[in-house]
Amino acid sequence: MLTSIWKPAEQLRGTQSRALIYFVCGNPGLIGFYVDFLDALRGLLDSSQSSTAYDIYGRNLLGFCDDEHEPFAADNPPWDVDGQVAGVYKDVSLVSRRASANDEPYDAVILMGHSIGAYICVDIFHRHALDPGRAPHLNLRHGLLLFPTIASLALSQSGTRMNYLRSLPTMDEHFVTYAKALLRIVPQATLRCIVRNVMGFSPCAADVTAEWLKSRDGLLQALHMGKSELDTIFEDKWDDELWESSASATGLGLRAPRFFMFYGREDHWVADHVRDDFIERRRRAGDKDGVRTSITVDEGNIQHAFCTKEHTSWTIARKVHGWVEEIDRAHRQE
Question: CATH no. for residue 8?
């Protein structure tokens, strides 16, 4: 199983600064789903004439690789949302120094997350703002949030269905047992074929899905985390200062938004009214320096699981590349 992806920039040219784009997966937290997307983004960044060299790194969320933990048990449960935030924050801090040139910290770190990964990114910004002394070398600059599930997840179409299933007799306690019993009789190659031909996944995404479903603990970790998301993510808990922090407040001279967000037009994991209420709050909050959170709602039909299809992976990579170019233009004016 692929556990991490490391895509460094080309050798520094002249007086370039160096930045890290740290990617946080959605649920199921498998970096293998994002191979096409991160390949596309790497190619687009390499084609840019930027004053900053961007390295890209991403890894599985905790608990999704059987080789990295002991089998789950009553005294060794899967990771919940809070545990994932703490684990990713720790890893961001480590990678932001370890992966940089000569072990020097990066000039800037950009967190990029998909789905629950977007929530994890925002909460890391929040925790770091409350106690920057935990990682004083970590210079968090921007968050790139893709199909963010950051508020009232239970009100979404899929959240409502999942809570209904949990309410059925024995399902909350034994769903994984039932699912694994069924999956046990289906060969991995057959699963791969079903996912690719019936669900339309790319070959890469079909391979990752089949491997995850046949793993020892992957399904349990995904379900445990999904329940934690439903029980944890209510109204967004962060104040306006985090979202709309001004240049003077950060001391960084930022003229680009701190956060860039891309929502699906019809996302079964995000209720339309929850999304629209959040956008309206951000519009009203504004910023004394006029730099607001950048929010885009898809005008097409890109699905929440964009990473399972190669063409939508490229579409989102181009969107992210546009954000990075906007950040570059802003910082050249500092």
Answer: 3.40.50.1820
Structure tokens at 146: 């893709």
Query: Could you give the number of structural domains in the chain?
Result: 1
Residue 314, domain extent: 4-332
Query: Which pair of tokens denotes residue 14?
Result: 């002249």
pTM, two decimal places: 0.94
Strands 4-7, 52-59: pairing is antiparallel
**How far, in Å, CA of 18 to CA of 35, rounded?**
22
CA angle 123, 17, 119 (to 5 degrees): 15
Burial track 275-312 (b if 16+ CB lie within 10 A, e otherwise)? beebeeebeeeebeeebbbbbeebeeebbbbbbbbbeb
Written as six digits, the tokens of 292 are: 């607001």
Distance separating alpha carbons of residues 181 and 7, to the nearest angstrom = 38
Q: Are 206 and 196 contacting, i.e. CB atoms less than 8 angstroms apart?
A: yes
pLDDT, tens digit, 9 for 90 and up, residues 171-219:
988 999 999 999 999 999 999 999 999 999 999 999 999 999 999 999 9
Cis peptide before 71 (omega within 30 of 0): no
Q: Determine whether 17 is exposed, middle or buried from the number of CB atoms within 10 Å of its CB (0-12, 13-18, 19+).
A: middle
Query: What DSSP character marks residue 101?
Result: G
* Three-class DSSP category at 10: coil
